[in-house]
Amino acid sequence: MSLITDLQWRHAVKAYDPTKKVSQENIDKILEAARFAPTSSGLQPFKVLVVENQALKDELAKGALNPDCMRECSHVLVFAAWDKYTEERIDKVYDFTTDERDLPRGRFGSYTDKLKSIYLNEAAEHNFAHTARQTYIALGLALAQAAELRVDSTPAEGFDNKVVDEVLQLDKLGLKSVSLMYVGVADASRDWISTMKKVRMPKEEFVIEYK
Q: Which segments constitute the Nitroreductase domain (predicted)?
């Protein structure tokens, strides 16, 4: 199947069957797609937290716009970005990269020095605005991978970030939540949007071409 066919299949599920689980194999594939997402300077300034524990999902649901989705889906994927850039974080990524490529540490020192001169002189909130944007690339690839696997999903920003951050103690990890992805098996009897025609603006309204 083509990627376009996969994307035409998917929709943002509005209700999940709490009795059904997504296989670990498929969860791993979705996470792998997110892990290989491109990021600015290859820094991967975010993590994906996988919440399957029901008690935790119940706690997270207290701040959700659609709490039933949060409670009843198989897994909640939390895309959480670095709260700020630090010298240690930048060096850790580039040390790992050079080690994996059998290059001497410091091989990209002039470039990492430039990154540090930019990011470390910015306010933490500006850093976070940048790291947060990176997570959406990974979220998009995770949604596409789920569609290829015919795994139902829902991207979500309708939640209280403070609740998620506190429940998962993200401050201890130097992270802040950005977006969620509910993964599970749709409940056809309650997923009211599933029978509706999928609608997107036509190409001539969506695309502006300069030839």
A: 8-184
pTM of the model: 0.95
Domains annotated on the chain, with CATH? 3-85+122-205 (3.40.109.10)
DSSP for residue 186: B
Instruction: Give pLDDT tens digits along the chain (211 positions).
Output: 599 999 999 999 999 999 999 999 999 999 999 999 999 999 999 999 999 999 999 999 998 999 999 999 999 999 999 999 999 999 999 999 999 999 999 999 999 999 999 999 999 999 999 999 999 999 999 999 999 999 999 999 999 999 999 999 999 999 999 999 999 999 999 998 888 888 889 989 999 999 9
